[in-house]
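Office hours follow-up: a student asked to see two folded examples consecutively, so here they are.
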Amino acid sequence: MRIIKSDIPLDPSCPFHIERRTLRQTDNRPDCFHWHSCFEITLILHGRGIYYVNEQTYEVTDGDIILFNNVEPHGWEVRSDTLELLVMIFQTEFIAAGFAVMDYDYLKPFIERGSNFKNRLDSGRLLTGEIAALMLSVEEEYIGKTTGHLLMIKADVLKILTLLIRHSQDSTKSAALLQEKKLKMTRLASVFDFINGHFTERITLADAAAIAFMSPNYFSAYFYKVTGRHFNEYVNSLRIAMADKLLTETDLNVLEVASRCGFRNMSNFYRIYKKIHGDVPRKELV
């Protein structure tokens, strides 16, 4: 699984956007998560799928809502023919210009993550229905662009965030968590770029640590804290994902695949492949 940053251009004078999107099974990218500098609230209009975030798996269907803050790597898998979404994204500045204390309070559900927080809001809950109705109202204002539409949009977004505060809030955590979490992902952005571009080569933890301007020991702990994976586990997950693709889509034998994916010996390839998948490659079983 690789992690990439998605750059989402928003108007600096109004860093907000809402649109309908259709995902198909051909859009599935199980080997790739992304993160972005925007907060995201997505309403599932129709279809079935799975979202992966914070080492959790959330099955979603009609009426569910999924939430992401501006530092969370996440991915998805479409399970029905299509997954129809209403996606609302906004940057911190849309809500909390200059980090005014009162405005910042609106972002607490995304940042502080109280004990009641989950990235998915189930469709059967009254809270979810209220937020869904507000999102549809925001969409209508965004499309219509009648006089005062930006004021109406912000009012509805603030109401959505207030409802989320009631759903989960933990006042014991520091507001500095926002900057801390964003800094962690930003410090690793160049490392992810390096790994994603060179994982089929011989790369070491020391190489990555140097790019992040950290000592190897500190980088190892830092990388695990941010991603939930050890450095070698992350690199090997990319290699095995590529191996799966080559084994499925090409006529290469297992030895050729292992070599192209960065494995220097077959015993290591088999050990890691079996650790991830629970068995050896299917081509080897034929």
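And the second, which I mentioned at the end of office hours:
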Amino acid sequence: MTYSIVARDPISGRFGVAVQSHAYTVGPIVPWLEAGVGAIATQAFVNIGFGPIGLEMLRNGWSAEKVIAALVAGDETPEQRQIGVVDTQGRAAAFTGNECVPAAGHLVRDGFTVQGNLLERDEVWQSMAPAYEAALAEKLPFSERLLRALEAAESNGGDVRGRQSAAIVIVDAELGSTRWRSLNMDLRVEDHDQPVPELRRLVNLWEAQALLDEEGDAAKAGMSEAERYMEARRRAPEFWELAFWAAVELAKRGDMQTARREMSAAIAADGRWRTTLEHMAQSGRIDLELAKQLLAG
């Protein structure tokens, strides 16, 4: 039915859940996370209430193991449930009810747990842990580690029914000044014949855009704005919105030559960017003379 990974990144302290299922819109159902609190995946013959109730327990300082025990004890049919939890200290716990459809099971490791049910074979869920650990040993980004766990499961057969939807959610180690700022990543593939590769594509676009965030990881690590923009364009050359707005900002700063180059590339790829620039200028969102100069090259 579903396989997932719940983890706390030992490097950043962030929490993440990644999941795939042959079920429509798995994203709103399985992953439950809160910055500074922890992460939960609830699945199988799912009790969605495990998500918000479990987060409330974590919010009150309960350990992952204690949360699992309480949720299972309070459920009318725990034998049909599957759940993975990681708490704020990185302690992980999981439960697989004895009536979950095989292949089903879980593995709890240092700082993360993987679980799955209604899978083609046991190797599906068993392969996820070593894939994540190998990626951690390579010091790959947290999102990449989560994706590799999903890809390992899929390469070993995945959901016995096939594939349909996937999701990845990552939140910060601590709650920031605003809740939305603490949501590091939130991506869903609702219905697709190849949801995991599609999820990887979306993650790449998300991270390319995040490179331009002045409060993002790359900026904090000391990458210059020019370096971050070049890397964003390298990662997502088809993401012309980045080129459009970079051109506008470059023009404002007086680098008209580079600005025209980027704007011309965007317009060449899709003529509607010229119309967008004209409409923005007409509305006063972009200076009219600046827009004319951008189009003069």
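Two things to take away from it. The mean pLDDT is 96. Residues 5 and 208 are 24 Å apart (CA to CA).
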